[in-house]
Amino acid sequence: MCGIVGGFGEISQDQIDQMLLAIAHRGPDFLATTEGKGIRLGHARLSIIDLSEGSNQPLWDSERRACIVFNGEIYNYKEIKNQLLGKGYEFRSSGDAEVLLNAYLEFGPAALRMAEGMFSLAIWIVEKEELFLARDAFGVKPLYYSQNELGFYFASEIKALSTLECVANELNIAAVYRTLIYMWSPGDATLLSAVKKVSPGTYIRVKNKKIVGKETFWAWDHYMPANEAFGQCADNVDDALTAAVESQLISDVPVGAFLSGGLDSSFLAALIQKKKSSPLHCFTISVDEPDSDAIIDLSFARRVSKMLGLKLTEVNASPEMASRLLETMYYLDEVNADPAAMMVRDICASARKEGIRVLISGAGGDDLFTGYRRHFAVRFESILINMPRSASRFMNWAANKLPLKTPTIRRLKKVLSYIDVGEGQRVLSYFYWTDPAIVRKLFLPSHLGRLEGAETEPFLEALSRTAGLPQVERMLCIEREFFLVDHNLNYTDKMSMAEGIEVRVPFLDFAVARQASMIHHRLKQRWFVGKAVLKKTAEKYLPSDLIYRKKVGFGAPLRDWILGDLAGLTEEVLSAENVTRRGLFNFDMVKRMIEGNRRGEQDYSYTIFALLCIELWCQVFVDGVMVDQNQQSDRMIARL
Predict the structure, then answer these.
(1) Which of 53, 279, 468, 496 sits between 20 and 30 A of 129, alpha carbons compared?
(2) Which residues lie below 8 Å from residue 242, measured CB to CB, with a gap of 6+?
(3) How many Cα atoms are found within 13 Å in the side-chain-facing hemisphere of 188?
(4) Strands 117-125, 144-148: pairing kind
(5) Is the separation of the CB atoms in 35 and 10 below 8 Å?
(6) Residue 289 pLDDT grade (very low, low, confident, very high; cuts 50, 70, 90)
(7) Residue 586 CB: number of other CB atoms within 10 A?
(8) Angle formed at CA 120 by CA 115 and CA 123, multiple of 5 degrees
(9) The pTM of the whole model exceeds 0.85
């Protein structure tokens, strides 16, 4: 796990150095750059496989035909290496970067489909004077780029691109709007108009400083149900997930795991511990609030740890975490208005102090096997759709009269609000944290023209492609291609790399994904049990009361924090002066939202938190406010 930067066009040695230093936290072990005709590449190394200097990057092949900068891990690199050895290739290292470079030289873009793992990479091909960029199939590793009249520039993080004066800091108003609706920015856009994301499973070819080709090398098999019994599906998932876990334990440094006490992390911990002769070191969150749902998770994490013989470290989550919001926005790069991001960072900081360099995460389990409440809701929405209009209107009226502090009432009101819209929009509505109509009222009138239809724009192709599938399968498509990538994987990567920790995700494995796609939707959610096949599989390893308990979620008591410990920060950051100067929002509407939330008229806690995060993000990435963490590093940079 590392960080990469580069520029093809006008870029000086000092500029590539500044880009690299901006992401130096991603590579605590080695920093280096190299150059070619019109190209400069940089790499920040976190040593995980092959700790020797032979795997330092940027890495040229033996004949200096091509050079790679690579972030990630290829779990099957030894198998690919054996193929290349049979074709006469020689290797100077025992790592995966050299294997990936030579595989590209031998097979071209087809090498990407051979590589089982997570990665973002750039390869400079000398003879063609061509730059080749790619991002892994599942989008585990981030990759950003910016293109202008001076050149083409790329990096693992936006902050590296922001060091370049030629990368404009103008806001993408539509992306800001979507972030307030979803709490994350879906699709290729970022909050900066000049910066885009490389899509998962995509490669880009650049010649003469311009993109000349963009291709998809892998796409999800969203739904191809096989005629297999429930028990057989569970056995298939067991085989695939066990193999994925085994392949992802390859490491030359200590490996630990997240352990929330929920199904996914507990299941993975059980599978890993079977492979180990010593206790797996796990990390979990503890909270001070006795009424928090997280207390339930903690009790199960302790129980799983004792049952499996794990070593468990508890990391406290308190409102003091939120006092580091400016720093958090700097490391996040994108606005993910979810306090879980801060928890990930604190867990990773604790892991590094304990000597752990790799953590295994349960991310992806819910997105493949239907683990969220909205998957259950969409299954039964037909009941509400088919009821008489008078009955649905009455239920909506009643829901509006009940106190919205109650989670069940909030969810029911949300479902009822979108009963009469088309199927596609109804799928998206389950991902709304704030109704688009309410969000539009926050913006100044001068911006409204750019918001028309912006909430659905990134999803249109996916919704068209999945038309005709069961609603839950269409929802899973949005989960995997957007929510998982742009929210969960983004904040997990950024927060873990802020502490120099690599996070691996065994659920995001080709074989596991294939098995999930082959499960009939009626078996994924069986009767009143969500994630039914995965739960059946887990029965071999975990007690039933843990497997079939209520899902809690990896979260913090944000609603209490907004009304309490964060109230002062909210008032300070979202002051009339700051909001007016930013020129995005109507301060009177922002103030009305904060006051209505305080009085309990509506629950806008997450929207207020998102507004807070957006302003702090703008202070860093638009205004250039310096925090301790973005002072330039004095580390040495090698020239390779």
Answers:
(1) 53
(2) 271
(3) 12
(4) unpaired
(5) no
(6) low
(7) 16
(8) 85
(9) yes
